[in-house]
Amino acid sequence: MNTLPRARSGALAALRHRDFALFWSAALLSNAANWMQQFTVPFIMYEMTASNTWVGAAAFTSLFPAVGLAPVAGVLADRFSRQRVMVITLWVHTLVCVAFAVLWMTGELTPWRILGLNLLIGIALGIQASSWQALVPLLVPASSLLSAIRLNSAQFTASRAIGPLTGAALLRFVGAGSVFVTNAATYALLIVVLVAVRPREVVPPVRQHLRAFLMAGLAFVRRRSALVQAVTTGFAMAYFGGALLHLAAGLASEDFKVGETGLAGLITAAGVGSVIGSTLIIAYGDRFDRSRVARWGLGLYAAAPLLAAATTSYAVGLTGYFVSGVAHVCVAISMNAAIQSQVTEEMRGRAISLYIMGVFAGWPLGALVGGWIGDHVGLRLVFAINGLMLVGYLVAIHIRWDGLRSIDANRDLADQAAADQPSPPGSTA
């Protein structure tokens, strides 16, 4: 069985390729603006309703549609142009941002309209996410694949440090409308870049009935323990760790008694942690097994909500959020790299879609359930329970899955795919 070549040209090798560099730069700006909006919408929702349940519902509607759409999105990513899928869904994002801006500026933005617009965002995101992840390997040669995977994750996490503080400044001094307009403009820029890049051609898969095509992808993942472990870990990370970010507005107001600047500080602390974690992984990731980095990340993810819930001290809360940012990139980059390096190109979209489905199921469910419970018993108890559950998950993967060690391989599964086919009559193994 062949192994993927190590990138000898350095951790930043993927940025030497024009198309990837263009896409990476535009994606960084777009994701930073998107984090501005993800900071702004929960803040104005909490200002309107003073309810963690409403805040959780806003996160739920923007993320949960991806759970149902992810398998179909994977099929689209494998059967059609990934560029075209992304351009269409990015136009939807752009128009929704414009609608947010118009409704806010005319005083017509209500909690129910926020939920409706977030639902449209969730639908577009659910269709887009698999094509986004599956497009990245087509912008670089195979020798730069792992570099591209890490850098793609790094730009997303770096945007978490840039977006919230910028969003807080715009919200405070200009208004929420400026956040929505800026986000729309960066989506339009990303569309222009996508039209300009020229990814490698992918051989179209053999035409199959949609259900058979979808089931083939599901069977591909189920036969491989490493992929099953990645999907399951993605869900656990998102459900028990993601609530800390999505419910930050309530924690900032109820426990830390800080305004939008304090809320931006919490989210930015997580972003700074993500940037530092990403930088370390890009620079030194090849020295450690992915399973070890993932276990470190899960341990830190368990500590983060426990720190944030331990006291009403804002400084301690910032520390907890910083730790959560480091934890997120340790787990997310490890799981993404494991999937991207263990799938065949014709299965990439469908395999990634199942991982995305796990993550997008965990985020909104954790936010909705955590917000509802938080309104009754307090968010600090919710976060403490989440931290303890992650401790339990870390113990479980040591016992059941040998500490996730199966995700460490970088395998070219072309030979494996051939091996999965039945042998011709009369042949010998």
Index terms:
about 75% helix; mainly alpha; about 0% strand; disordered C terminus; about 425 residues; disordered N terminus
Helix content: over 70%
- Characterize the overall form: globular
Rg estimate, integer Å? 21 Å
Poorly predicted runs are 1-9, 412-429
SSE string, helix = H, strand = E? HHHHHHHHHHHHHHHH
In a nutshell, what does this entry contain?
The protein has helices spanning 18-49, 52-63, 65-79, 82-105, 111-135, 145-173, 176-196, 210-222, 225-246, 248-254, 260-284, 290-310, 314-340, 348-377, 379-400, 414-420. It has 429 residues and is mostly helical.
What does this structure look like?
The structure is a single chain. This protein is mainly alpha-helical. The protein has 16 helices and no strands. The protein is globular, with a radius of gyration of 21 Å. The N terminus and C terminus are likely disordered.
